[in-house]
Amino acid sequence: MYPTLFTNPGVKDFAEAIDQERGQQLAKWGEQHHPDGTGSKHQQDDADRARRWCQDAFGSGYGTWADVLTEEVAEALAERDPASLRTELVQIAAVCAAWVHDLDSRAEPTTPAA
Prior knowledge:
This protein has 114 residues and is an all-alpha fold. It has a domain at 38-105. It contains four helices and no strands.
């Protein structure tokens, strides 16, 4: 399918799953263009709260993947600058890849049966 470009565990499978889903989205809705809708004061305040929540959760020993992802999404939504927004969106994808890899490494299979 693709040449092996990925060096981190689980990223190749994750990228292929995203590529498949993206193909389904394009087939269903076609190419889409929307405003970003990010960077409001409210979204910036939410990002600050999410960042503190995540830090407190991990500082207390109770941090979860949901906490990490929530923080990253809130930070993306707080961005006004397109380059910074892109960086945050890539960070979200990386957190998702790590979480999916963690799920896949557990004793019970998490990938849907084909």
